[in-house]
Design a protein that fits this description.
mainly alpha, 16 helices
Length: about 375
């Protein structure tokens, strides 16, 4: 018993150290700064005003489907925002698309997926989440769209946060993204990478000095620190627990290797991209509560995607259904939407995640 406990704790520590050494400095730190800038320097009201039932569909669904990259929220944080725009008269279609896309294409999660699980799966996750949100929204609208055409959401008054030219804001975020991409790249020599990041950081500093107020910079720092405090400890604890579970499972797996034990045990069920495997992954993702970013080590280490033990289809299905739903999330959605609408929404998320996983896994 003591030997198994030591193995489990050692596996948890090794998993955590591997995660920290490979992904924190080059990926998570720049991503947290970008997410903080989005939260502090872009007004959320700017996108929420486009969800009215009378808004042109191509506008409302376009905004709703990419809102997650701007809002950077999880499946719990999105609920009060969804409830608010729903009560104000937003069309059920755009509101449902917003409900799914908000956590599904969280900027931090997409970046980490591409970094840890591979660029191909990261891109597939982002594109599939956008398309899924639109499809889910359109189906919900075709079934439940209200007859009254309420414009109250469109009447939200949005006050610009500043008088900066739009291209300054665009350039600011391009520079931040460039720092992230260069820092995370494994193709650029270390010296070249450091020089490039140094120059880009100077460019960001110049923009901050001449175009942003001291209060805005403070707010950016505050939001970045708040996001880090909320997400990073949970991510570290979750990663450690994943490693511990792998250590325990190693006592039952053929190889007795903590790094691959859970993947070996679940491979008969999730090891290919069959409809049954993708459906199981979608249901697991829909029921489990996974804090922001934790779905990445769950898919990569826990179920063994990075070791080749989990199929690509189930991996994508879980990444789509998991962040956007959980059992507590379903309960709240039911109270806000009503049982019939919530049931259809939940069923659509599971079925379309399954179908998307099957298609991706068999390409």
């Amino acid at each position: 018993m003591s030997g198994l406990l030591v193995t489990a704790l050692t596996a948890g520590f090794n998993t955590l150290m591997e995660y920290l050494s490979l992904h924190v400095l080059t990926c998570l730190v720049p991503a947290f700064f970008i997410a903080g800038a989005i939260s502090a320097l872009l007004a959320k009201e700017t996108i929420l005003k486009y969800f009215g039932a009378n808004t042109r569909k191509w506008i409302s669904y376009s905004v709703a489907s990419v809102s997650g990259t701007i809002l950077a929220v999880c499946s719990c944080t999105i609920l009060p925002m969804f409830a608010g725009i729903h009560r104000r008269g937003a069309g059920i279609g755009p509101a449902s698309a917003f409900l799914f896309s908000g956590p599904a294409i969280n900027l931090l999660a997409i970046v980490l997926t591409a970094r840890v699980l591979g660029l191909e799966l990261g891109v597939a996750r982002a594109l599939a989440a956008i398309l899924m949100s639109i499809v889910i929204g359109l189906i919900m609208a075709s079934i439940f769209e209200r007859g009254d055409r309420c414009d109250s959401v469109n009447e939200i008054k949005t006050i610009a946060k500043d008088g900066r030219p739009w291209y300054i804001t665009l350039l600011f975020f391009i520079l931040l993204v460039a720092i992230l991409l260069i820092g995370a790249s494994g193709l650029i020599p270390t010296i070249t990478k450091l020089i490039a990041i140094y120059l880009l950081t100077i460019a960001v500093s110049i923009l901050l000095i001449f175009y942003y107020s001291r209060d805005e910079v403070k707010e950016w720092g505050h939001e970045t620190w708040w996001l880090t405090r909320q997400i990073f400890p949970v991510l570290l604890l979750g990663t450690f627990i994943i490693g511990v579970i792998g250590g325990i499972a190693s006592g039952f797996a053929p190889s007795h290797d903590p790094a691959t034990a859970v993947g070996e045990l679940t491979m008969p069920y999730l090891g290919d991209s069959s409809p049954a495997a993708c459906l199981l992954a979608s249901v697991i993702g829909a029921i489990l509560y996974m804090p922001t970013l934790l779905e990445v080590p769950i898919v990569g280490h826990f179920f063994g995607y990075t070791s080749g033990l989990m199929g690509a289809g189930p991996a994508l299905s879980l990444l789509l259904a998991g962040p956007s739903m959980s059992l507590p999330n379903m309960i709240v959605i039911t109270r806000v939407m009503g049982g019939k609408r919530a049931g259809v929404y939940i069923l659509l998320v599971i079925l379309i995640s399954t179908l998307t996983g099957v298609l991706y896994g068999n390409l």
